[in-house]
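Colleagues,

For the teaching module next term, I've prepared a clean inverse folding example: a structure given as tokens, and then the sequence designed for it. I'd like students to try predicting residues themselves before seeing the answer, so please don't circulate the second half yet.
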């Protein structure tokens, strides 16, 4: 990869990578740091990266950096027990986006990552598998489980409208 290809890749995919990381981490400053780290790792390995695979490398690096930070934060923070009733939605909302975001926040990290890559960013199952290090069948299972949870979380259309 040449420096010009690197700059083009950064310009083309910086916003998408930031949205993906932010959706999963829900902390703007942490998301910016993860994106910056991904760009830095890409720059350090510029000589070994194929220019055609820059986007895949960038998202894969960003994903793994995000997972490392999430794991590090979990070890530092106190563990709290989750009340099962808090996982279900009973109030009425008129903002579907808000309800979906709340539902996404309830998902486990891996499910949230794959559903975001698939439904928000438009990646194929194979590409998601390459980014996350999961097999294509594992990706499909996680997406299915995430969609099933979101369907249950949202409930009936009357609750959202």
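(Answer key — instructors only)
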């Amino acid at each position: 990869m040449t420096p010009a290809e690197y700059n083009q890749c950064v310009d083309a995919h910086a916003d998408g990578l930031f949205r993906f990381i932010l959706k999963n981490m829900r902390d703007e400053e942490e998301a910016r740091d993860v994106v910056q780290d991904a760009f830095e790792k890409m720059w350090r390995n510029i000589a070994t990266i194929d220019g055609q695979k820059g986007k895949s490398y960038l998202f894969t690096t960003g994903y793994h950096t995000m997972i490392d930070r999430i794991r590090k934060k979990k070890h530092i923070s106190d563990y709290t027990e989750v009340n099962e009733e808090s996982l279900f939605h009973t109030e009425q909302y008129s903002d579907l986006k808000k309800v979906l975001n709340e539902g996404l926040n309830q998902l486990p990290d891996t499910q949230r990552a794959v559903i975001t890559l698939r439904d928000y960013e438009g990646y194929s199952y194979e590409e998601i598998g390459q980014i996350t290090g999961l097999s294509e069948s594992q990706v499909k299972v996680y997406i299915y489980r995430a969609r099933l949870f979101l369907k249950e979380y949202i409930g009936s259309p009357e609750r959202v409208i």
